[in-house]
Amino acid sequence: MRRERGITELYRDDPERADALMLGRRGVLRGAALAAAGAVVGGAIPFARHMPGGLIPAAMAQQGTAATAGPKILKMDGKADLVILGDRPLVAETPEHLLDDDVTPTEKFFIRTNGQIPDATATPDAWELTIDGEVSTPLKIKLGELKQRFPNVTHKLQLECGGNGRAFFTPEASGNQWTNGGVGNAEWTGVRLRDVLQAAGVKPSAVYTGNYSADPHLSGDPARVALSRGVPIAKAMEEHTILAFAMNGKPLPAVHGFPLRLVAPGYPGSASAKWLQRIWVRDKEHDGQGMTGTSYRVPRAPMVPGSKADPKNFMVLESMPVRSIITNVRNGAELPAGTRSLSLRGHAWAGEKTVKAVDVTIDYGQTWQACALDAPPNKYCWQNWRTAVTLPSAGYFELWARATDSDGRMQPPVPAGWNPQGYGGNAMHRVAVLVKA
Ligand SMILES: Nc1nc2c(c(=O)[nH]1)N[C@H]1C(S)=C(S)[C@@H](COP(=O)(O)O)O[C@H]1N2
Ligand SMILES: [Mo]
Predict the structure, then answer these.
(1) Three-state DSSP state, 305
(2) What gap in Å lies between CA 399 and CA 384, rounded to an integer?
(3) What is the pLDDT of residues 313-355, one digit of tens each?
(4) Which of 202, 246, 278, 437 has minimal Cβ neighbours within 10 Å of its Cβ?
(5) CB 7, CB 323: distance < 8 Å
(6) Looking at the predicted structure, is the pLDDT value of residue 26 above 60?
(7) Domain total for the chain?
(8) Residues whose beta carbon lies within 6 Å of some atom of ligand 1
(9) Boundaries of domain holding 124
(10) From CA 283, how far away is CA 153, in angstroms rounded?
């Protein structure tokens, strides 16, 4: 704890000196600067000569600054100690070290709301779903009938917020400052959306879906919609796009969309509408709340970081990018003196792709070591990886994980593709550890 206080105090009491130590240095840390940086992170930095200039040590990158003394922790029945990123609307992320399970327990699953949380219905089987628009027979079907009429399927599917990783963009991107915890991998049970769409008879003119849900707008104004997104019709017809009524074997909790939600895995989480009431099959790209301007949209051509956006340059963010997390070692962990071998494990996923490699480094990327990587049990389940690293001495180390997707795309060291709302920031996960002397 002393070390965290030290960093916070250093920034509060003498921000210029702190910046000179932690940010303003160029190239190699030497002499007094190295000793001072070592004091801040709590130990010697054996690989200091490889630290990139300007790198903010991971030990402090996620622990709050002088302005935000510490994370605010969620206190909600049935939920673990998630970190609150916003309380109106409620947004909470899962610290990476709480994501160690292969299947994310419901209590540890992140929460993202854009509006209010609707009152849970007492009679879930009477919940009505409407399918209309570009279909030959519009449907109005109760959840009870939906469960009976269509085959029930269960898949492990990762769901990731489009803004996951946003906190690492420079300059700061607007929105909830997710680190890497806007993701979870639950076991979802429901019916395939395509079975239901086929029952309604999808017309050749169908291009896109438009979701409408029961969550009231934050303002309470019934004329305004909290969120209304959709997916291209081909995505809606995929085997793993489901209308889910259960999460990890139990009815969905209220915050996760009770009694019925979509799960469109691989896409930004916002496409997975909770509290779902209507799917409007459209003859063009949906233009509901969250589909236009710079919302869940990314530049076609790179833009100058921090510059003004031209909406004409923007397109809908579809597949999420590749990412990996280390889940068995907590950022800032102190390891007992003499620790030289350290097992590492975690998960990796890549939106609609699969992950073909995960590598780790302990020396700021000078050398990389390949990890063992499992195949997913079903498409869109995150993949487990593991390895062991050898730490040469006592001191401060950073463990970095980097995944590569099936197209050969790799996570960058810092988020690339700056955009005003900070989507798709998939920088490598960095975990600081201090091996006691
Ligand atoms: N109706 C509705 N559905 C929604 C949202 C919302 O605000 N309203 N938020 C979306 C976003 S942005 C994300 S990332 C996921 C989060 O799902 P979770 O809260 O179950 O983790 O739900 C999506 N579905
Ligand atoms: Mo999201």
Answers:
(1) coil
(2) 17
(3) 999 999 999 999 999 999 999 999 999 999 999 999 999 999 9
(4) 437
(5) no
(6) no
(7) 3
(8) 109-115, 159, 161, 213, 215, 226-227, 256, 269-270, 272-275
(9) 106-316
(10) 29
